[in-house]
Design goal:
The complex is a heterodimer of chains A (about 80) and B (about 725). Chain A has about 80 residues and is mainly beta. Chain A has one domain: SH3 type barrels (Roll). Chain A has 1 helix and 6 strands, in the order ββαββββ. The chains are: A mainly beta (about 80), B alpha/beta (about 725). Chains A and B meet through helix 1 and strand 5 of A and helix 5, helix 12, helix 17 and strand 10 of B.
Chain lengths: ~80, ~725
């Protein structure tokens, strides 16, 4: 399977993904970059909250929670 | 390091006159670091109970500092708000960056950057930015024990040589664990050496421009931090000192800004810095062969589980709520009884001076009681908050609850403040501190008092007992009580939506939350949190509560004269014997005095305003007198209905007096509708000076408490009017 462009909504527990770029650079995406979601960064989805959002990802060796719907400016691809 | 500053420091050092030294500002050491890095634990270990809490001017962010003696030098330590990067995203971060830049007085002389060994890569991102500043820096490496448990070893010597600054491992929660940091600070005090920038992680382009601008500025005698220059380049809205007067500097700045305006600039900058952090973290960290699951992962399998996690969450919250509700009750009674005892003793001594007697007993002592009665709830709640925060559970709770609160513009962290507010808004509002972002904190504070607190209960019990239960039975009574508790919650939703749309319409921040590794809470941190919160409440909010209590006492006491009392007495004597048998002379005098007081006159004057709600001057006066606290309406109604102030919500006499009360035309004053209207009023109003005083303290000004009082009073009034108008429409 080849890595494919994906939506944050498609992420499930156990998914591995990589940041490929940004749709828009604003306050929001800048903060996500500072938290470690830079181009090329890989992460694993650890947990999904009971109501479907937010999600917990493991990124650069730490656990970060973010809302899927607030992360859409970050382009990702799901890794096989 | 620019030469001017070095010169200034050398002068400080060489001066041998102690009194001259004393007149110089104290050397300041600022603790910076990511949230959850163990910064506050280290600060507590360094400073203990010497801490002072104030507000930074003009913002709602707290300044926590302490003066500590090291050898012969007194140092001022500041615990800066946690921050992820020097490009601030929240008001709290902006304050931290402002302090580093010298916006609040002089720049810190030394930075201690707290770095979490268990989360090295991301923590190094900030270290990288600080290194570029060129300010003296010591790295405190924390959480080495937690990291070891998770199979991660960080070599401090290797890290020190990579970074080019001292790296001191600390176990701040152990006895003497902060000692190595004090020693490192002592060593620094001897030399006051500036660190050399040995490594930089900025993009080459940015390095080129900051270096060029820095040199251009140095030529004209301006000493600017690299971060200041970077900020000016990255944000065209800020100005750079010297840029306006000196075309050379301005030209360079414009060029740099053009480069930074390109979309990919930020991407490259953050990515380059993380590459740097990743390289160092990999070089200095040794990982044990990966275990199947870390301890934190194993605990999280239960605590963040879709079903199990929610059950544990509900159990924990139930326990916290029950504790502030029931555990605090006997302590509160004890405090109230204690002050009542002191009041009666003092009252005896002051018998010969009735004015002083009433002022001190009913004003001052009652005010002190009204303040101290909140302490048990505050201390218990902050015990739990500090405990849960210290273990790492609070972040999990926020994760679980975020969706529930997030859709209306709050976030998961608002859960504890809002839940606590069902017991009492005062600790609830103070608990909003768990939110690291000023805007969400303010939104939560502004709706917290809409949650139905325990002080509304006496009002509900009195009115439901007198007007709902006798007529409609216990089931409807129960539903009404539940409905009243639900009302505030339901009203809070549109309020938050409007606040977020209309008032905080500036950019919203993403909800980002780190789940730290689990660990045992540090008892010193827990106790210090309780101590500091109690102290802050008593010293700031307490002063306001006592002042307001004395003010309301005066409004009820004055005017008062012997002539008036003689007139009331003769009125009483002329009453028919039948009435006299029902009302005692003292109760009658108390009622006439209340009616004649400034507050009573005011109640009568504004009666027309409350007529659309179906309230007469007596209810209006009860509402006015309940400004200090909602439950005060019960004794006030006691006075107004000639029963004296010694009644409670269960009093049968008070209930029957209320049932029998009529308008001048003989129609019933309080119908079940009026009772509901009055309960709606009390559910939505902000008749609580302790809440207002606490909001004044937490938001650092009168603007938000005034706003809160206004919006809640308007809602309460409209609610009561709506109920009465429905009554008129239906009957």
């Amino acid at each position: 399977m080849i890595a494919s462009e994906a939506k944050w909504q498609d992420l499930k527990v156990g998914s591995r993904a990589r940041v490929t770029g940004f749709r828009k650079i604003g306050k929001l995406s800048k903060r996500l970059m500072e938290m470690g979601l830079t181009v090329g960064a890989e992460f694993t989805v650890q947990k999904v909250a009971p109501l479907g959002d937010p999600i917990e990802i493991v990124l650069r060796g730490y656990r970060l929670c973010l809302r899927k719907r607030e992360s859409d400016d970050v382009r990702i691809e799901i890794l096989p | 390091m620019p030469s001017q500053a070095r010169e200034r420091r050398r002068k400080n050092r060489d001066s041998s006159l102690t009194d001259q030294q004393r007149s110089l500002p104290l050397p300041t050491v600022a603790l910076v670091g990511n949230p959850n890095s163990g910064k506050t634990t280290l600060f507590n270990a360094l400073t203990g109970t010497h801490q002072k809490v104030a507000n930074y001017p003009g913002v709602t962010v707290e300044e926590v500092s302490a003066e500590v003696e090291i050898g012969e030098t007194t140092l001022k330590f500041t615990d800066l708000p946690g921050l992820y990067s020097l490009d601030p995203a929240t008001e709290d971060e902006a304050v931290a960056v402002g302090v580093l830049r010298g916006d609040f007085g002089s720049r810190p002389d030394l930075l201690v950057c707290v770095v979490d060994a268990n989360n090295l890569e991301r923590n190094l991102y900030l270290v990288g930015e600080l290194l570029e500043q060129g300010a003296p820096l010591i790295v405190a490496l924390t959480m080495t024990d937690v990291a070891a448990r998770e199979g991660v070893q960080v070599d401090p010597h290797a890290l020190a040589s990579e970074l080019g600054v001292d790296v001191i491992p600390v176990t701040a929660h152990r006895k003497g664990g902060a000692r190595p940091i004090l020693e490192a600070i002592e060593r620094w005090l001897e030399t006051r050496a500036d660190h050399m920038v040995v490594s930089t992680c900025d993009t080459q382009e940015m390095q080129h421009y900051t270096e060029a601008i820095s040199q251009a500025l140095a030529r004209i005698g301006i000493d600017a931090l690299r971060s200041e220059i970077r900020a000016a380049v990255l944000d065209p809205g800020t100005s750079l000192r010297g840029a306006e007067e000196f075309p050379e500097v301005d030209a360079l700045l414009q060029q740099a800004r053009e480069a930074a305006a390109r979309e990919e600039f930020h991407e490259t900058a953050a990515a380059t810095r993380y590459e740097w952090a990743n390289r160092i973290a990999t070089n200095v960290t040794r990982r044990e062969a990966k275990r199947t699951l870390s301890i934190t992962d194993r605990i999280d399998r239960i605590l963040v589980h879709r079903v199990g996690g929610l059950l544990v969450f509900l159990a924990v919250m139930y326990f916290v709520f029950q504790s502030i509700y029931t555990l605090a009750a006997p302590l509160m009674t004890l405090i109230e009884d204690g002050f009542a005892w002191v009041g009666s003793a003092v009252s005896g001594w002051l018998e010969p001076w009735p004015l002083a007697q009433s002022a001190i007993v009913d004003g001052l002592i009652a005010g002190l009681a009204a303040m101290f009665v909140f302490l048990p709830q505050i201390l218990i709640l902050f015990f739990f908050i500090a405990f849960l925060e210290g273990t790492g559970y609070l972040a999990r709770a926020a994760f679980l609850m975020d969706r529930l609160l997030g859709w209306c513009g709050l976030n998961g962290r608002a859960f504890i403040p809002l839940l606590s507010s069902f017991a009492c808004a005062v600790p609830g509002i103070m608990a909003a501190r768990v939110m690291p972002d000023a805007r969400s904190r303010l939104a939560t504070i502004l709706v917290a008092p809409l949650m139905s607190c325990s002080a509304r209960l006496p009002v509900y019990v009195l009115l439901i007992g007198a007007f709902i239960e006798p007529q409609f039975g216990p089931t409807v009574a129960g539903i009404t009580l539940f409905g009243m508790h639900l009302l505030g919650l339901v009203v809070a939703i549109p309020v938050v939506l409007v606040l977020n749309r209309a008032i905080f319409k500036a950019h919203r921040l993403p909800f980002l939350l780190e789940l730290p590794a689990y660990q045992w809470p540090k008892w010193r941190d827990v106790l210090l949190t309780m101590y500091m919160r109690g102290k802050v409440f008593v010293s700031v909010a307490g002063r306001i509560i006592v002042t307001m209590s004395i003010l309301v006492w005066a409004l009820l006491y004055f005017p008062r004269s012997d002539e008036d009392f003689a007139r009331f007495r003769s009125e009483y004597e002329q009453l028919p014997a039948r009435t006299q048998a029902l009302i005692s002379e003292d109760a009658y005098l108390e009622q006439r005095q209340a009616e004649n007081s400034l507050l009573g006159r005011f109640g009568k004057a504004i009666e027309p305003i409350f007529i659309p709600a179906g309230f007469d001057w007596r209810i209006t006066m009860g509402i006015l007198a309940a400004f200090p606290a909602r439950e005060v309406i019960v004794p006030t109604l006691g006075i107004i209905f000639n029963l004296g102030s010694d009644v409670d919500e269960g009093s049968r006499d008070l209930r029957s007096s209320l049932q029998a009360a009529t308008w001048p035309d003989g129609s019933r004053l309080i119908t079940p509708w009026t009772a509901v209207g009055l309960m709606v009023f009390f559910a939505l109003c902000c008749q609580c000076m302790a809440t207002l005083a606490t909001v004044r303290r937490e938001t650092n000004g009168w603007k938000w408490p005034v706003f809160m009082f206004t919006y809640m009073s308007v809602l309460a009034y409209l609610g009561a009017v709506a109920v009465h108008q429905l009554e008129l429409a239906f009957s």
